[in-house]
Amino acid sequence: MPDLLFAIELTISGLLNGVMYALVALGFVLIYKASGVFNFAQGAMTLFAALALVGILARVGLGLAIVFAIAVMVVFAFAMERVVLRPLVGRPPLSIFMATIGVSFVLEGVAQSIWGAEPKGLNLGMSARPIEIGGVYIGRVELYSAAAAAALVAVLIWFFQKTTIGLGLRAVSDDHEAALSVGISLRRVWAITWTIAGLVAVAAGIAWGTRLGVHFAVVLIAFKALPVIIIGGIESIPGAILAGLIVGATENLAEGFIGPAVGGGVKDFFPYLIALLFLLIRPYGLFGREIIERV
Amino acid sequence: MIYRETGVFHAGYREDMRIFPLFLDRAGMALVLVVLFVGVPLVASEYWLKGLLIPVLCYSLAALGLNLLTGYTGLLSLGHSALMAVGAYAAVIAYGRYGISMPVAFALAGTMAAAVGFLVGVPSLRIKGFYLAVSTLAVQFIIEWVMTHVGWISGGVHATINVPPLRFLGLPLDTAGEKYVLCLVVVAGMTLFAKNLVRTKIGRAWMAIRDRDVAAEIMGISLFKYKLMAFMVSSFYAGVAGALLAFAFYQAANIEEFTLASSIRILGMVLIGGLGSILGSFLGAAFVVLLPILIANGLHVAAGLSGGLVRTDVVANMELVVFGGLILFFLIVEPLGLARLWKTFKDYLRLWPFPY
201-260 in A: which are within 8 Å (CB) of B? Predict the structure, then answer.
């Protein structure tokens, strides 16, 4: 049946889309896990990383360009910790959230000043022909991104569960002061966290830049990742992956089946509808921890 | 020495409960009002009125609404512009398509926005903090989609509805000066209402919820009722502000003016002006609206001194960087914003000319 094949194609491409959303959502989850703040600037960071990569790609090979982009994000992470986070220690999370809003504006302005605002293509040398499996077409970019994201997630899960630094990050996310009293250096932890988030931004920037071209729309992808975080729980890496898959698949299916009836554009807000539904049923997400307040 | 509270004795409840207990404050306020209502329309140029004062007034009202929600009640909302859009479209459709008179159109705009605000506030029963902020963001995107895709509202492919010539209770409002006075009257009235609202039981309940909501609940303040009230009142203000913008500034209702970027801008106004301060909303709105002009002029002056020209994209990028930098600056250095700076100045005046 053509309808079933259509649905399967939508689902598979949606799932792969979803992995790419999850990649962006990971950045949010990481920073929240380690510092308890929602990083509004993640989209701007993704754009910044992608622009740094594309800017230098004209002159050096891909491997060196990736190294350069990572170096840029490391510098940014340390600057962020020194200039923004250190003066705001102990402030309510709302203040730090609004600080990330400020940072996102600064990043956008600086990025556009240095690299200009025209869209740039990002060509990784992959063929554009989709792979065919049993009548269903799968895009190559999506497949490679999914593989890269899976590898990244595996590394991150190992990092947070098994290494000392990872445990330190989780301790800081629970309670700044308790972590300090145990001897964990907040500054190091924050610098490391933002560096890792920067790495994720580089990966997400490559994935989305290849797909969309590197321009301002990449920042808006970050907003697509918000329903992913809500559904999965902002503190959970597996939650981000699972929710990304759910969001990707459902938004594609909705666009495919409901879209023609209401004039299209369903993709833009359907994930948010699902997120709102989840908020009413499970406010903290599929894998999120419930916030228990102590009075 | 001149500006002091000593020697001011209250002879009754009326004097005690005044908004401005000191005579100098009252005189100053009266002077400001006279200048605003009478002086400005006589003296100001068309550009100043149209380009600067009207948007400053409209955005001050919007920032005031958001300040009531975020500054007084502590509920962060990223969807304020969407509520302004609801008000704008409601007012323009009522006035333009159905011929409803302007005051009723404004009231309708506010009421519709408040109804949507009620829906936005319902999740606050179960979720708080970051998740509530993201749900308001969801509302922003959903409303943007609805405005552009529901034919009855937007009237077709373009989501812009133009406004027919304005008549307020029979008086035509054609010149910028007349539109400015309309904005001023509406904003002044609603500011007075807001100032009194935060002095009542409702305002105190909001502040209690912001400071420590568990304690407020224990004291008997119904969290859900007051949070919903905060959402509805703030949305009412947003709706009227949106309607004012559509009538007096843009002469059209256009969803492009009410996107997420605008929401963030209004949040910036509230932050820079001062959370939890009525005056702060005005200072912040004036600051943010005038900022692009200041930057552009500053860059032109700098370029003129060095003998070069300034490209438009450089100006646009500087705006972004300076706006973000200012938000960071105010958060780090003076989290209570411009209003706190003004209050510090007034405290200094209390002692002047003595040093302590």
Answer: 223, 226-227, 229-230, 234
